Amino acid sequence: MLKGKTEGLFQLVLRDLERKGIALKSDTIIDATRIASAVRPPKGGEVSETDSEAGWTKKGGEYIHGYKTHVACDATSRIVTGVIATSADVHDFNVLEHLLAGDEPAVMADKAYESKARRARLKAHGIDDQLMYKKKAGKPQPSWQNALNKLWSKRRGLIEGIFGTLTVERAASIKLLYSGPHEIHCKSSRCWIKYKNVKKKCCI
After folding, report:
1. Start-end of H helices in 85-142
2. Which position has the higher pLDDT, 50 or 2?
3. Under a CB-based contact definition with an 8 Å cutoff, are residues 31 and 152 in contact?
4. Which of 25, 114, 110, 33 is nearest to 75 (CA)?
5. How many whole angstroms separate alpha carbon 129 and alpha carbon 119?
6. Spatial CA neighbour of 134 closest among 85, 81, 162, 92
7. I need a surface site. Which of 40, 65, 68, 74 has the fewest CB within 10 A?
């Protein structure tokens, strides 16, 4: 997992926002977005000779060769508070703890992040667990879990606007190539640093 060379600058922007009185201590939303590699995907799920760090993942029936940007954002301000880049084959579940500060009142994430052990760890640290519930195979999902999933999904969906920012930034570039997790992290971080500066007028 990679936080990259821009991590220091990223944290500097967060501290500047806090000095300006912008609180970043509300609930945290965690999610990930897929980014295709710049190289031609190899056949048959093989490793690319040109971009050997890229991996394969499948979403909605579509296979993607590339990377993931895992993101944490403050639920109230929608400011990105953490970014990690990985190969696309790294499961979202494995990254959640690496994106937490440890003092969040609550953590929101989709069903990919849920487990009984994780819920227990969050409770032990005094963090409210708002991880959506997975339906157990062969059993109907309890109505209370469906109700909580519906309630939490509305707030968790705020992070989709954050990913939209990255998509627009990429589309605005004439040629923005992604090759390697270092480049993924740096370009994603720069995009959100720029977003923070424009929206919140922070100075670094």
Report:
1. 116-124
2. 50
3. no
4. 25
5. 6
6. 92
7. 40
**How much is the CA Rg of the chain, to the nearest whole Å?**
18
Instruction: Name every residue whose Cβ is closer than 8 Å to that of residue 84 and which is 6 or more positions away in sequence.
Output: 1, 2, 3, 69, 70, 95, 98, 99, 185
H helix or E strand, kind and range, residue 83: strand 80-87
**Residue 171 is encoded by which pair of tokens?**
């589309």
Length of the chain: 204
Do 68 and 86 form a contact (C-beta atoms < 8 A)? yes
First and final C-alpha spacing in the chain: 27
Q: Which is it for strands 106-109 and 128-131: parallel, antiparallel or unpaired?
A: parallel
Structure tokens at 179: 């090759």
Q: Residue 10: enclosing H or E segment and its boundaries?
A: helix 7-19
The Cα 5–Cα 86 span in angstroms is 14
CA distance 131 to 61: 24
- Tens of pLDDT along 110-141? 999 999 999 999 999 999 999 999 999 999 99
Amino acid in the structure at residue 110: D
Indicate the residue type of 43.
Answer: K
Q: What is the mean pLDDT of the chain?
A: 78
Q: How far apart are CA 12 and CA 25, in angstroms?
A: 16
For residues 200 and 195, give the distance between their C-alpha atoms in angstroms, rounded to a whole number.
8
